[in-house]
Write a structure and sequence with these properties.
alpha+beta; two-stranded antiparallel ribbon; 10 helices; binds heme C
């Protein structure tokens, strides 16, 4: 008897805390089940699963079955107990058996009654379950319920939610987002709109490409154009459509104009020039055998400007080289310029054509070089001075050959004329 009363109390408590058809929280029922009712536990298990899935329709009836049974069982058990108590053969077993039978009968009756009561909401008809977070509400098995609304407004820059009192809400967020432009980065939500961040950097660091950005495809780096300048002065920079930038070293671009350094181009460090030891030209014509020392052309020994002429003064001009000053040297005496005029004036009448003595020395230098008949072993030219000074020439001019004695006689030669002929002979009788 004591156990039955405990069961009855549990069922009463359960009935007061559950409410069929309104989605009773599973937690409350789970707490009640701890006391141990077979019917209630089965219903609760199904209810919990159904709640998770978002539909309470089937659960409502299951709850009704268990809960509705409680007051009926209570009444039946009380009646049985009264009846049994009057009988002499009452036993605990009898009471239990009666209670079980009563429970089954009453549950069936109550389910039938619930279905009848819910029939006010015909199956598959539109209704309003009063929850703004559900939509397309329809009746099913007498219960009005709808699908949970997602509240998705399709805008990534709003956070969608649903409030049981006010319904769907869309709150602006500041999430990163995609603005659909491949040329922007770090796009972020501002005031509910995806706003472009910084421009996408498309510089690929390759000077041989033209860099740009296409809003659809993103960075475009077109090979084959560009300066390709590597900032190395001694490389020739070109842009190849296949290989990209090409930098060609040219040592000649490193020429420092110094013959005492070697010049070379390095692709990384640029020009380098280092001292070399070699022959060089210091640009001074007055020095010879110049050599490079410490990168500078150092003058060698002075050039020899001696022309071996006793009368010339030799020197060297750094701009023009050797200079030979012959100011004080004797002027050269020639047949053509110096001697011929004298012969022409004093001897031409007999020594020009078909010359006397067979010699035309007064008009022809070659005849001066002929062997003399009157001065054996000498030339006619050498013999002229002899004939002048011994007074035999010019013929019939009455000259003594001594200028002082012959002074005033125009046909005779003066001392200066004799000296000129003398020098001409001593200088080799130049033409
Ligand atoms: C009027 C004519 C005449 C005049 C002027 C004259 N001569 Fe003669 N000369 C002769 C005759 C003729 C001979 C050949 C005979 C002789 O050797 O005496 C000759 C011969 C010479 C010879 C020798 C040739 C040889 O083969 O050895 C010399 C040298 C010479 N004359 C020099 C002079 C000179 C110098 C002058 C001028 C300053 C001069 N004569 C003027 C007539 C002339």
């Amino acid at each position: 008897m004591q156990k039955l009363w405990i069961a009855a109390v549990f069922l009463i408590g359960c009935g007061t805390t559950t409410n069929a058809g309104t989605g009773t929280p599973a937690d409350a029922e789970t707490g009640a089940d701890v006391s141990g009712s077979t019917d209630a536990a089965a219903a609760d298990a199904a209810d919990s699963a159904a709640d998770t899935a978002g539909t309470d329709v089937a659960i409502a009836d299951a709850d009704a079955t268990a809960v509705d049974a409680a007051p009926d069982v209570l009444a039946d058990v009380a009646a049985d107990v009264t009846a049994d108590a009057a009988a002499e053969d009452v036993t605990a077993t009898d009471v239990a058996a009666d209670a079980t039978a009563d429970v089954a009968d009453d549950v069936a009756e109550d389910v039938a009654a619930d279905v009848t009561a819910d029939a006010g909401c015909p199956d598959n008809t539109p209704c309003d379950d009063g929850n703004p977070c559900t939509g397309d509400d329809v009746c099913s098995k007498g219960v009005c319920a709808g699908q949970i609304l997602t509240c998705d407004d399709g805008n990534a820059c709003t956070t969608d939610s649903c409030d049981a009192a006010t319904g769907c809400a869309h709150t602006n967020n500041s999430l990163s987002c995609d603005d659909g432009n491949s040329c922007s980065v770090d796009s972020a939500c501002i005031d509910g709109t995806c706003t472009a961040g910084a421009l996408l950097g498309c510089d690929d660091g390759n000077q041989c490409t033209a860099d740009s950005c296409d809003p659809t495809s993103g960075c475009v780096n077109t090979l084959g154009v560009g300066p390709c300048n590597d900032n190395i002065a001694c490389t020739v920079d070109t842009c190849d459509s296949f290989f990209g930038c090409i930098h060609t070293k040219q040592d000649t671009l490193c020429d420092d104009g110094n013959g005492c350094t070697a010049d070379a181009c390095d692709a990384v460090t640029g020009c380098s020039n280092w001292n070399v030891s070699t022959d060089c030209n210091d640009g001074n014509p007055c020095t010879d055998l110049d050599v490079c020392i410490d990168g500078a052309c150092t003058s060698g020994k002075p050039v020899n400007c001696n022309d071996n002429k006793f009368c010339s003064i030799d020197s060297c001009d750094p701009s023009s080289g050797c200079v030979h000053d012959t100011t004080n040297c004797p002027k050269p005496v020639s047949y053509e310029l110096d001697v011929l005029p004298i012969f022409a004036a004093h001897c031409a009448s007999c020594h020009t054509t078909m010359g006397a003595g067979g010699s035309n020395f007064a008009s022809n230098w070659f005849d001066t070089q002929s062997p003399s008949l009157q001065c054996p072993g000498h030339t006619v030219g050498w013999c002229t001075l002899v004939r002048i000074q011994n007074g035999s020439m010019p013929v019939n001019a009455n000259c003594s050959g001594n200028p002082a004695t012959d002074s005033g006689k125009s046909a005779c030669l003066t001392q200066a004329q004799q000296d000129k002929i003398s020098v001409w002979i001593s200088d080799g009788q130049q033409p």
